[in-house]
Design goal:
Two copies of one chain form a homodimer. The first copy, chain A, is 24% helix and 26% strand. In chain A, the strands form three sheets. In chain A, strands 3, 4, 5, 6, 7, 14 and 15 form a seven-stranded mixed β-sheet that branches. A six-stranded parallel β-sheet of chain A has the order 10-9-8-11-12-13, sandwiched between helices. Chain A has a two-stranded antiparallel sheet with strand order 1-2. With 339 residues, the first copy, chain A, is α/β, with parallel strands linked by helices. Chains A and B meet through helix 7 and strand 13 of A and helix 8 and strand 13 of B. Strand 13 of chain A pairs antiparallel with strand 13 of chain B.
Chain lengths: 339, 339
């Protein structure tokens, strides 16, 4: 037996369950020694870590579609990294891999739990955490499958400057939407939506009643609503829907930090007469669309037709701050942590 | 020219738009003379008139899927009657017809607007206002098409003792539901559901929290919810839904008399993780299912497998009271007015 070389991983653990908005003291940065990979394992040096709104839900101790994070254990999440030691067939040192052992600088994991991805010319590996990864697939599947988008539809997306929302709006445009409308939380984001991202209209939801702002942006009503926000945005969409409108319910970021039950969309009864369909979904149910998604969206990226933004925060020690900033809307496009 | 024989029709008009629950003074009974049928017209003596919850919405001056009733004009609604004079090909004196000129004892209308129906042995013509008419088709289409019912599903229906609800539960049972649960507003109705109608479980929603009552009745959760009520019932269903649950949103009787926005459901966010589909509908979009519906449901009635109830009120002068009683839950099964 030889004495294994040790690797020090710096990792973020959940120190306390946030009450409302998370704060610094809810997180703890710890060091952990990792050994060499056992049979079938690889050791990965992470290059980029993902922070995503859904993680907020996992910080609560409630049953959801993903189990809660444990206290005083390292959290998990999307990560892309480079294999630095391999004891498994199929993965070699230097391979770029996508996996779920985020919130840490290094990961020791079964090769089966890592997926090799291709480095693309001119595209940062972080794209696999965003436009070519889970958020991109969420946008693609939610718009095209869940909301059954069809050419000519007027599409409204909330949280439109985020990783998912910016992809939704652009995919809708590229697929022939009649009109694409987005909401975001600052004048800069709104300008970005109607500028570089090619939305037909956009508004800052902090400027007044969402119902009124949406009515002005979509005087002829909407056919599809991609909901990242919930609450007053969903209520506004219900008012704006044309007959046979469809909503893909993807997220409710307006409520993730809430400590009280939200008030209802008070106009849900409109769904009857307007014959609306509201459909909740999680991206995990749409993995079968991945190959088609990568081909189509990868093509749009390569041809420059689809633009994606990243907000990059550097260093594992800034990761809790990045996550809190994400919930506060400080990102444009996908927020990642670069190591 | 001959002097036409006149027929006196007694009719119910909307005298005032109800604020909250309708009251006697919102209605006026008037007499109106009808002449003989003109070219292409028939004169019908109505036998049964329909009162339905959707009519409450038409009494408000708001845009909906049907236009509002006009003040000081005779209201309309389902009616079945006998042709007593015809000036049209295809309809003869003595024919039984279904038409939309209800709320009156006699109707002069284009033959094209009347549909001849067959008198069935042992079945009152009033069935065409209920189980073999609009409410029956609503149940059939909502359960099988809108909610995409499949064998083994656990089905919950609110307003289960009503015309639509009692059909929903029985169709679900006949189609192989795993379990059928109903809610109603009295102990007698609950006993009727689990007795004659063959529901597996039922509860009186006035006995406590609907969420708690439903959890007890459906400990394994529900797959399909047929919503006639809205509000707290929909909230309870959202809590009880299994993954990929489906709701057919048909009515919101809890809110029809409301003068304030409802406070429930506050848990719509559950639709995301549970991947639920909520779909509003109106029966007018499902007329293409009518032939299949009449064949299948008519067969179940003939064989005695499907039971239907009627609450019969006699006399046009009692029609406003019948309607008010309907909104107050005084019916079991379809409520009709016999002339």
């Amino acid at each position: 037996m030889t004495i294994s070389e040790k690797t020090m991983s710096r990792e973020v653990q959940l120190a306390a369950r946030p009450q409302g908005a998370p704060k610094d003291s809810d997180f703890a940065l710890v060091g952990r020694e990792l050994g060499q990979p056992g049979e079938g394992q690889v050791l990965v040096r992470n290059l980029f870590l993902s922070v995503d709104p859904y993680m907020r839900g996992r910080m609560n101790d409630v049953k959801s579609y993903t189990p809660p994070f444990a206290l005083n254990e390292t959290m998990t999440g999307g990560a892309v990294g480079e294999v630095i030691a391999s004891n498994a067939d199929g993965l070699s040192v230097g391979d770029l891999v996508l996996h779920d052992q985020g919130w840490r600088t290094h990961a020791l994991l079964p090769a089966k739990a890592a997926r090799r991805v291709d480095a693309m010319d001119g595209v940062s590996p972080s794209a696999y955490l965003g436009i070519l990864g889970m958020p991109g697939l969420t946008a693609y599947a939610g718009l095209l499958d869940v909301a059954a988008f069809k050419e000519g539809d007027v599409v409204f997306v909330s949280g439109a400057a985020g990783a998912v929302g910016s992809a939704v709006g652009q995919i809708a445009r590229l697929k022939g939407a009649g009109r694409v409308i987005g909401s975001a939380g600052s004048a800069d984001k709104v300008a970005h939506l109607t500028g570089k991202l090619g939305f037909d209209a956009a508004f800052n939801y902090k400027d007044g009643s969402v119902t009124k702002l949406l009515r002005e942006a979509a005087p002829g009503g909407i056919d599809v609503y991609f909901d990242n926000v919930g609450g007053d945005h969903l209520e506004a969409a219900l008012f704006a829907f044309n007959t046979f409108g469809r909503a893909a319910l993807c997220g409710a970021i307006s409520q993730y930090n809430a400590t009280e039950a939200p008030s209802a969309p008070r106009n849900l009864g409109l769904a009857i007469g307007k014959q609306l369909t509201l459909k909740g979904f999680i991206v995990g149910s749409y993995n079968h669309l991945f190959p088609k998604f990568v081909q189509e969206v990868g093509g749009w990226i390569a041809s420059g037709q689809l633009h994606y933004d990243e907000t990059v925060v550097e260093g594992i020690d800034h990761m809790p701050g990045a996550f809190m900033g994400l919930l506060d809307g400080q990102n444009t496009g996908k927020m990642v942590v670069k190591l």
